[in-house]
Amino acid sequence: MKEGRRTFEAIIFDLDGTLIDSAPGLHAAIGEMLAERGLPEPDLETVIGHIGRGAPTLVERSLRWAGADPTDHPDAYARFRDLYGADPLSGTTVYPGAREVLATLHNAGFRLGLCTNKGEAPTRDLLATLPLGPFDAVAGGDSLPERKPDPAPLLHVAEMLSTAPQDVLYVGDSETDWETARAAEIVYAHVEGGYQRRPIADFSPYLTLERIGDLPAAIKDS
């Protein structure tokens, strides 16, 4: 739902579920970590439902789904991190149109940022290997003490872009992204078809996109 015509100087993106589909690789690593503990392995849709608040929460939710107390598996997150970190590109794909969108916006003069709950080092490795960008500022889930939906990471990226929050558009795919944008008082564009599987309460994004490739035209027409 649009809230009046806006112009933007910078656009900040979420990563997983917005620009890339990394769920298959996360699913494989979670499944192996649980199987090593003799626990049931979730299907892909279950793991997708656990994505959004960072890898530690993904592991905790997966353990609870499997009927395990996370406190009984203090090494689970480290093991998951090792498994996923050994092959983070396995099953990871860039959504159709994402590279073109970034190039179009960059060439149009927008400052581009990335704000994700994925760790900063693996994020930068993914961006370089896929390749995906260019980004003028990147913040990962371990770049600050806070993670999304706390507004601090998003505001940090805006500051690195030397852009006031009111001149930023944040693009995401999940309730976590919506809550982050709202807490930061930054305008939000929602991409459908990502990892959000349930309706979002009090949901009123500035833009709703069927696919990431629709973003440049939607900004121009907004």
Topology (elements, then pairings):
Blueprint (H helix, E strand, L loop, with lengths): L9 E4 L6 E2 L1 H14 L7 H7 L4 H11 L10 H11 L6 E2 L3 H10 L3 E5 L4 H10 L7 E3 L12 H9 L7 E5 L2 H10 L2 E5 L15 E3 L5 H7 L1
Helix pairs in contact: 1-4, 3-4
Mean pLDDT: 94
How is the largest sheet built, in terms of strand order?
A: 5-4-1-6-7-8
Secondary structure tally: strands: 8
Fraction of helical residues: 40-55%
What is the overall number of helices?
9
Based on CA atoms alone, the radius of gyration comes out at 17 Å
Major sheet: size, sense and barrel closure? 6 strands, parallel
The fraction of residues in strands falls at 5-15%
Shape: globular
| Helix-and-strand structural type | alpha/beta
Distance between the termini: 10 Å
Outline the low-pLDDT stretches. Answer: none
- SSE run: EEHHHHEHEHEHEHEEH
